[in-house]
What we know:
This protein is of the alpha/beta class. The protein has helices spanning 10-33, 44-64, 75-89, 92-109, 115-132, 141-153, 161-182, 184-189, 194-211, 228-235, 257-270, 292-302, 315-318, 337-345, 361-371, 386-398, 411-419, 427-439, 480-492, 509-522, and strands spanning 247-254, 271-279, 282-289, 304-312, 326-334, 349-352, 373-379, 402-405, 442-448, 453-455, 458-460, 465-469, 472-477, 498-504, 527-534, 540-544. Strand 2 and strand 3 (282-289) form a beta hairpin. It is elongated. It starts with 9 loop residues before the first helix and ends with a strand.
Amino acid sequence: MPQTADDMDAVAVRAWCSLALEALGREREAIDAINVYPVADGDTGTNLYLTVESAAAAVEAVFAAHETGTSVPALADVVRAMAHGALIGARGNSGTILAQLLRGMAGVLADGHDADHLRRALTRAAEAARQAVAHPVEGTVLTVATAAAEAAGRTAGDPRPEAVAQAAYEGARTALDATPGQLAVLGRAGVVDAGGRGLVTVLGALVEAVSGEPPARGTWVTPDIAPVTVAAADDCAAGGPADGPAFEVIYLLEARDDAVDRLRARLDGLGDSLVVVGGDGLWNVHVHVDDAGAAVEAGVEAGRPYRIRITHFGADRVHPHLSEPAQRGVVVVVPGDGLSGLCTEAGATTVLARPGEPPASGELVDAIRRAHAHEVVLLPNDAELRHTAAAAAEQARTEGIRVALIPTRAAVQGIAALAVHEPERSFDEDVVAMTAAAGATRYAELAVAERQSWTMAGICQAGDILGLIDGDVAVIGEDVPGTARAVLDRMLSAGGELVTLVLGEDVPDSLAEALQEHVREGYLAVDTVVYRGGRQCAPLLIGVE
């Protein structure tokens, strides 16, 4: 069990994030099942889980960087990391609002951790969330957050943070029970608000974090949710896929406050479910629109949008379980959109790994579910993802999916494994063949040195081209072509039959042609294939089989 504390200090915040993630992991499917507002797309629990997972990872990073004996990081550093992690990892309408709730709390808790600060933090959180939503609606997570803050306020004078947390939790539960009577779509479906239920789960984790004991849960019973996954879209009068905007658009945005004010007005005219959270130059933008391009263009006019996600509210998202699952699927982590297209064409479900932003276990679990198969082969394509991928595979297995994790360490190993994938074979035979193909592929990558550093190949300077073979720096060069040739020569000196080259977005085709010629002239009977990695990809990836 995570360490707990009797007030809202750094240790308690860490415990809160860990306990909230654990609780949302248990509740995720149930919350997804009652998701009918604002869009009946069955992902509120998953979005909340991914948002808290990002917050928890940011908090753990602060603690990991503060390994100085028995001391712990400053509370201000921990709560700011929590808020930032939630902001950059926020998913969907519910996750974006939760990120703003955590940001509101962090602004107050950074100054103190007693009961009074916790009361004021909950109040500030509810206010900030309402301000972030273009058109607040009662009967939603906003109502639940406000009720939690008001209940916490009624404990004024009580010096115990656990009393404040318990009051907020009970106030939120009471408000959640009332949501079907406040929002017609919930009443027709016979469910409470999904985002509100997620917030109750998070507040329950807060009680346990500050008191060491799970909250008293009373006699609350979730309404029957069986009909929701099938009927909700037809019943959703507040903008389901049948009668509302066609796309969900989410992106992070670097922009000034005044530019964001104009952006809000622009996006409000384009669609609905508009939520803009953040501050201090970094924002998370969420909106449902028919013209996804216009929503992104509005972001470009306001500042620099990135990590753009556009999701179509198609029938496969509203009724994700109506079609019969395939027997077998493959999930592949890829470092660039070009490889994503290549793997998708080969029938795989892909997860994009951006530089410095490896996918979280929740994203991998979500991809395994999207593969919609009884059996799934998972290719992480990164040695650093082995634990994350193992956790995702274990979670998927608890849901009845048979998952085989092949510990691929590079994208070229994943390509080799996917090339021999044959769904007609037995699962075990297919996994053995894919594992053998990946294991027989040596891999290399070219990267640009960011600073002077000691390496296995000597001292490099900022701007040098590094050739990494099997993860270690083997060549230090002055330019990409020369370094690439040196790396190829080292790799092919041990033999090989096939060279795979994956070019980054800014690398010219002429480099591939020159390297193909180099292989033809120096190594008889060795074939070469070339792919485009696209954006986010390293300048050059090399595989030798």
